[in-house]
Amino acid sequence: MSKQITIIGAGLVGSLLAALLGKRGYQVNVYERRADIRNANISAGKSINMACSTRGWKALDLVGAGDKVRKAAIAMNGRMMHGIDESLTFQPYGKENEAIYSISRAGLNQILIDHADEYENVNFQFEHKCIDIDLDRTIASFELNDNETKYVESDLIFGTDGAFSAVRSVMQKLKHFNFSQEYISHDYKELSIEAKNGEFQMEKHALHIWPRGSHMLIALPNPDGSFTCTLFLPYEGENSFEKLNNESEIEAFFKSKFPDAFKLIPNLIELFNENPTSPLVIIKCFPWSYKGKVTLIGDASHGIVPFYGQGMNAGFEDVSILNELMDQHGDNWIELFQEFENSRKPDADAIADLALKNFIEMRDLVGQEWFLKRKKIERALYETFPERFIPQYSMVSFTNTPYSEAVRKGNQQDLILDELVNKEDILDIIERGDFKSFVETNHMIPN
Amino acid sequence: MSKQITIIGAGLVGSLLAALLGKRGYQVNVYERRADIRNANISAGKSINMACSTRGWKALDLVGAGDKVRKAAIAMNGRMMHGIDESLTFQPYGKENEAIYSISRAGLNQILIDHADEYENVNFQFEHKCIDIDLDRTIASFELNDNETKYVESDLIFGTDGAFSAVRSVMQKLKHFNFSQEYISHDYKELSIEAKNGEFQMEKHALHIWPRGSHMLIALPNPDGSFTCTLFLPYEGENSFEKLNNESEIEAFFKSKFPDAFKLIPNLIELFNENPTSPLVIIKCFPWSYKGKVTLIGDASHGIVPFYGQGMNAGFEDVSILNELMDQHGDNWIELFQEFENSRKPDADAIADLALKNFIEMRDLVGQEWFLKRKKIERALYETFPERFIPQYSMVSFTNTPYSEAVRKGNQQDLILDELVNKEDILDIIERGDFKSFVETNHMIPN
């Protein structure tokens, strides 16, 4: 008889996993706390946008959902920095055809649930709030909307219920379960720039950034011509959410900090007051599984900050890796989950660190001259030595290189870049076409 | 009207705090999950022993309980290391009259509950398990033994319910509440060496250590002539609890690793099988308080490993510091709790690190020649420059120097000791009486 599998959480990772396990022939029941997102009326401008990149596409294609998602996604080929003087600077993410893809969370989630739901052996149940798990007997308890409790027994339980995972909160009571939740100093708030006569009001194929040192605004495009904006501010202190308490404070802040964006958001006050201010948390734990019976994947085991655009991609990569391990281990779930958590943990920690580091890059460094110079040198190295120098951002976003390896190689690259950026005439050398011989003569590139 | 205060947890810190708040005239209700420890029949040999030092005594004296505790405590003037060849090496903790004091947890807890209970305005209720807190309304919910739920409203709630705090688990759901639980690789198990004809079978005034590199056994004296022993082993891998599964494995392990102790524990197998194997966890969180209404103190906010003998002392010091802040802030609890957590957090983190570091010292370094040489030099520095060089262990155990300052000064001392320990003839110099001039000539001591 085929194994019965319970998935708790029908978010992005849960519904993708459901499709994979459905495809592999398991009996899959997915339980979700919220109502069916497919029936909810969610306007594009009010849902967070994701940036899908190579790791994400690999997993989506694995379950055959890639093309459905591509139709709803918009390529972003680089960053568009908005200066405080309303100047624009574009910096490409990678080579000419490389891009990360903007897609709304709600839209993507709907596609994935629909996709998994096509399998007869996959079944979704909404408005089921997980309130307890009997780990040894793999029995999950759910509270339904009528306050009834439902008990579901199965062979395996996957906790894909996100950063505030109910499954993990049960595992947290286990002896030897290491866990941390760490909030960063910034909260965020969604805003939006609407389309004008159905047209985009800014460059469509870019991720827009207003880098202001201690804080920033970003905007990602939607197919309807709008942009989903996210404002990141400290929750207390200078230039913080705590300091924006009324119409005039909010307006004055936007006018002085993001003058061009301010003109594009006529309903700023309304959006600011209606949309919640939400915290940003980093989740780490170990082990991720219990006796081959229960495991956590995605944000439930490794929740990160959004600044590398890798949270979803990392969760989707979990699914690709699980797929490979299922090929190797068959139904030996104890071995499979242990190999998964042991091999994956260093990569999860690596992308957690990179994401935090990238916050400083996005909110501060991209607005600085020397940093853009450094990026130009990095780009020249990539173009001159495409096999020997792949920039860290490209490794993370456009390859499936393990995150921990991208960190190691990035550290080596930093040493080279530190040296090159200090050569005053380096940009001239690049422009003259002497870069290759300069770098080789000075033994500045790893083999 | 006097403030109503709820204390959750009648352990060591909870009952000491109850005495302090009772003395200050508050209406105090203490709720404890377990039965009244004063009625429980606990033999000394089966409860963990604490090592009370200066910070502990300061707080005990503050509430007038010091002399009651002194009568039940035994001075330990130093470490007695037991070699694998049954050799003994004694290393004093401090100056001649300096000692840390062995006392059973249960005995101390009984004294403190009795002491607090003498105040008419302090009331203890046992078998009340905290199951929820309404933080904003300061209402605590308790499950009683008959499965009834009791709701208690008060002005202030103190969570003194230890490393697995129920109060903290409610606060963990708050936005911006940082939290981590980290288990170390070792578990522990209590054992005991009984008295023989009412006499101690080893040196009474010492903390006995069998340092074996990756693991260790320790023993602390009790007034009845027995020693409470604790075995610290990794929970898996080589020389671990996982590997000791039957009589012959346990006996062979003890015979080869702790030959002299083995002869003194005739009921080893019985004790080993009866006593639980328990984990060791480090707890960190922040903030510790909520809106001047609820705060965590002791292990609930900063649980540490036992290897510096400072867990209880740090919790008791929390009470001393709260007392000083109550003098300063009166009933402004928001300010008081914020000042408490902001000033105390660096010290809590410092002792957490020191305690972990001391595990390596106890299980490994104290068994090594060069380390004992280093300790002799440290002692010589202390004796020669008593004002300018107070060893870190003495600062932590025999003064009220903030833990974070002890870390800073300890790091400076390490540099000096690193240098001196490499002088081959340094012990000769000390013996010849030339140490003072040698150190001064070489400018090796801070002013």
Mind summarizing the main beta sheet of chain A? Answer: 7 strands, mixed
> What percentage of the residues of chain A does DSSP assign to strands (E)?
15-25%
Rg on CA atoms of chain A, Å:
23 Å
How many discrete domains of chain A?
3
Q: Reading side by side through the largest sheet of chain A, how are the strands ordered? A: 6-5-14-15-16-13-17
- Helix fraction of chain A? 40-55%
Number of strands of chain A: 19
Net shape of chain A? globular
Helices of chain A, by number, come to: 16
End-to-end separation of chain A: 53 Å
Q: What's the CATH superfamily of the largest domain in chain A, by name?
A: FAD/NAD(P)-binding domain
What oligomeric assembly is this protein in? homodimer
Reconstruct the topology from this structure.
The structure is a homodimer of 447-residue chains.
Chain A (H helix, E strand, L loop, with lengths): L3 E5 L3 H12 L3 E5 L17 E4 L1 H9 L3 H5 L3 E3 L1 E5 L5 E5 L7 E5 H13 L4 E4 L2 E7 L4 E6 L4 E5 L2 E4 L6 H6 L6 E16 L13 E5 L4 E6 L5 E8 L12 H11 L1 H6 L3 H7 L3 E9 L2 E2 L3 E3 L2 H4 L8 H19 L3 H31 L5 H16 L7 H7 L4 H19 L4 H7 L2 H7 L6
Parallel strand pairs in A: 1-2, 1-12, 2-8, 5-14, 12-19
Antiparallel strand pairs in A: 3-7, 4-7, 5-6, 9-10, 10-11, 13-16, 13-17, 14-15, 15-16, 18-19
Helix pairs in contact in A: 1-4, 1-10, 2-10, 10-11, 11-14, 12-14
